[in-house]
Specification:
This protein is mainly β. Helices cover 12% and strands 39% of the residues.
């Protein structure tokens, strides 16, 4: 069974998704993608048109998340620079806020979670995400049963925290 994502909180500075893996077999691995843009079938994407933007969206912290998800990424290094805050290997992207991704396990004692970023086409995301950063999530089951975790995509250097 695949990982499904539900957007549970949205703000100017962050997006919180609930990642769910249904009843999984023992020692299984599942991978899912939070796309950059919806493809008609996906109701959850990073470039959600309803991300609130307060003030001057061009370079203010209030528009940081929108700038992050709308900035093109040519490869995995640029995707990691944008969404994960890694600065190595991505000199082409300047004057853009950096992101941070956090994972908070919620339910299911038998899961470990791994999060990474990549350029949409390289990650295998639908065509609408080509050229933009996407979030890849892998769940490793160490036993049977369902599992959930929160995946937070946050603009760095903002005061945002999820409750």
């Amino acid at each position: 069974m695949a990982i499904t994502f539900t957007l549970v909180e949205r703000s100017t500075y962050g997006l919180r998704y609930l990642a769910t893996v249904e009843d999984e077999e023992s020692l299984a691995t599942e991978t899912g993608i939070i796309q950059a843009a919806g493809d008609g079938d996906a109701d959850v994407s990073l470039q959600d048109g309803s991300i609130p933007v307060a003030g001057n969206a061009e370079r203010s912290p209030a528009g940081a998340l929108k700038i992050l998800v709308d900035t093109p990424a040519a490869d995995q290094a640029q995707a990691r620079a944008l969404l994960a805050g890694e600065l190595a290997g991505a000199p082409a992207i300047t004057n853009v806020f950096r992101g941070h991704i956090a994972v908070t396990p919620r339910e299911g004692n038998f899961f470990s979670w791994q999060v990474d970023t990549n350029e949409g086409a390289a990650a295998g995301a639908p065509a609408a995400s080509d050229g933009f950063a996407v979030v890849t999530v892998t769940a490793f089951a160490h036993g049977q049963g369902p599992g959930t975790a929160y995946i937070d995509v946050i603009a760095k250097h903002t005061e945002h925290q999820f409750q």
